[in-house]
Amino acid sequence: xxxxxxxIAQWMxxxxxxxxxxxxxEAVRYITEHYGESYIYTNENGNxxxxxxxxxxxxxxxxxxxAWDRDGFFWGWT
Length: 78
What we know:
- The protein is α+β, with helices and mostly antiparallel strands and about 80 residues long.
- The protein has three helices and five strands.
- It has helices at about 5-20, 25-35, 50-60; strands at about 20-25, 40, 50, 65-70, 75.
- It has a three-stranded antiparallel β-sheet with strand order 1-5-4. Strands 2-3 form a two-stranded antiparallel ribbon.
- A hairpin with a 5-residue loop joins strand 2 and strand 3.
- Helix 1 (about 5-20) crosses helix 3 (about 50-60).
- It is globular, with a radius of gyration of 12 Å.
- The termini are far apart.
């Protein structure tokens, strides 16, 4: 049985593959609505972010095919 963090990472990958882009605000909203706030935190810059566990699993799943855009706060399919 997969963990909720794995479910979230798989959802993120599916979304970025389908749309070509996934904004962090959209991901945070979805995760909060469907999984609660335990996978969300406020980082040192004061931005709401996704847990490091989820991002680590997401990175493992996409294998370098997704890039993070710091200025736009989104992931894009490469």
